Model the fold of this input.
Amino acid sequence: MPYAGPQSPFQIRARRGMPTGQQAVIHDHVSRAVREDDAEAFSLLEPGQTYRDLPDRLKRYRDDIFDDKYKRLSWDDVSRTITAHIARDGYWYIHPEQQRTLSIREAARLQTFPDAFRFCGHPSVQYRQIGNAVPPALGHAVARRVRAALASQEPARSSAFGERLREWQGFASSQYGQALAWAVLMGELCMPRKTQSQEPELLGSAIEIAPSPRAVNDHAAALSDLLGAAAAKRLSEVATAICHRHDGQLPEATENLRALPRVGTHTAAMVRCFGFGQPTPLTSQGVRRIVERVTGQPSSSVWTSRLQLVRLAGAHGPDVAFNAALLRLAEERCLPSRPLCGACPVRSECKHGNRASRQSANTGASPPRVSVARSARHAVA
Done:
């Protein structure tokens, strides 16, 4: 239908992005048909009034239960929250002046969708999509606050922490790609319960037997003898999925990795980082422990840890050297109990380390280096 043109700043924003030639057109401005008695009921409601304010002859429901079933919206007040229930019952949202419920486009406007955004399917399905959605303006506001928080939280400390950690680790690799990514995945799936002295030899032997996902099922018996039946079964399940879904090539995107059987959030991050060389925040227990101690703040969720890791990593992001150092730090120094703060390379950037006592026992010789990022360090010669 034709559109008279935007009046308010919000309406001007809503019209941005309309296709050429459609600036004077508004789509989906259609509403449901209204029963005759409902239209009469609507006409008797003033802005802000509800079902309870109707005369008894027009009440089809108990007004002690359905006291707010009918709600005339007001031009001068905020709207009710648009919910998915609008798909079945629009009487919560009666137009401020006209004797009807809200149109699809009006509901979308209240959810702050731009007019150029179209919805698919039957009108009830379109209403449900709108009601289930996070309002775009809310998403924008949250993203701005997250960005501001990341930019304002101790940039100097963050940069120093990441650079000190990378300098201590000195880890680098130039062999990223399918071969290394497959080796990383094999290590994460098959080596978690092996001793550190066994890992390099076992993983190297497993890679010789099955250097790619396509080779796994052809050598199932040999892998079972080497790794055990349970580990071989895990490897077979994920290799079969890779062959069927991705033509034998290990996917690089996080969502595709996570969709593989047996692959969790941490394993997917390990493959992306150490296999494909992509900066990726890790989510292991040890890494989250480090984040909590460095920042002095409890990690309420995996997402909180990820945001803090990105900040701590500095300009390079959580790259291979940074993540390798974190894993090494978690195994060698930042232990679950009695952390070796005196031997920590980033103690000066850590709030827990600054509070810890400087006992001589903690400043002695460094403990033996433990295998970390096993698949990245030992899989490819």
